[in-house]
């Protein structure tokens, strides 16, 4: 057995070379192509992962900047809720020391993604208490240190007028034109 002829050794070496080449072309080479494809897939997956992480970080930062939805809903409700408006204005007037006389709602006006409800309101008290009322009304929705703080509905004072109160000076009657806001566009008219 140990005495192989040179021809047999040459055939054996050729067979080994042939088997190696066959293994290379039929086993290793296709796996290299698969490995290259997997490498491209891995690079693409890493790019998608990096983009997803960046988007998640951006969304998290946006969420930290935005106030909570219940607070927004309190400042800008999706319905008029006139009884709530009356109670809120009366509570702010009472806390300021004013006497709430009346409020008359106007007609809803469309805005961009919201509606505006004009209100004509009258209060009685002195100037300092009227000033306190306006300050409390303004502080119901405010931004402090980049954070929105909401304690009531959002109102904008469009105009204010003063006249002598029923008890005479220094009592004043304050007539305000306010705007309250309703989230959402107006419903389309029904046919």
Provide the CATH superfamily of the largest domain.
Ribosomal protein S6/Translation elongation factor EF1B
Sheet with most strands: 5 strands, antiparallel
Distance between the termini: 105 Å
The count of DSSP E runs of length 2 or more, i.e. the number of strands, is 7
Shape by Cα distribution: rod-shaped
Q: How much β-strand is present in the residues?
A: 25-35%
Count of helical stretches: 4
CATH topology of the largest domain: Alpha-Beta Plaits
| Helix-residue proportion | 40-55%
How many whole angstroms does the radius of gyration measure?
39 Å
Tally of discrete structural domains? 2
List the helices and strands and how they pair.
Layout: H1 6-65, H2 69-75, H3 82-96, E1 99-105, E2 109-110, E3 114-125, H4 127-138, E4 141-144, E5 147-150, E6 155-164, E7 172-183
Antiparallel strand pairs: 1-3, 2-3, 3-7, 4-5, 6-7
Helix pairs in contact: 3-4
């Amino acid at each position: 057995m140990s005495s192989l002829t040179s021809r047999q050794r040459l055939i054996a070496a050729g067979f080994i070379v042939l088997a190696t080449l066959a293994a290379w072309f039929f086993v290793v080479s296709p796996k290299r192509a698969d490995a290259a494809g997997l490498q491209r897939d891995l690079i693409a997956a890493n790019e998608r992962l990096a983009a997803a992480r960046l988007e998640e970080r951006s969304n998290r930062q946006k969420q930290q900047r935005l106030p909570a939805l219940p607070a927004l809903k309190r400042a800008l409700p999706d319905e008029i809720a006139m009884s709530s408006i009356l109670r809120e204005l009366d509570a702010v007037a009472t806390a300021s020391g004013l006497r709430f006389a009346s409020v008359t709602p106007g007609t809803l006006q469309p805005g961009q993604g919201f509606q505006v409800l004009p209100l004509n309101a009258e209060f009685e008290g002195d100037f300092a208490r009227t000033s306190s009322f306006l300050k409390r009304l303004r502080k119901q929705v405010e931004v402090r240190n980049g954070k929105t703080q909401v304690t009531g509905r959002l109102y904008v004072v469009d105009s204010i007028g003063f006249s002598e109160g029923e008890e005479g000076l220094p009592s004043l009657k304050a007539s305000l034109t306010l705007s309250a806001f309703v989230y959402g566009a107006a419903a389309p008219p029904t046919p």
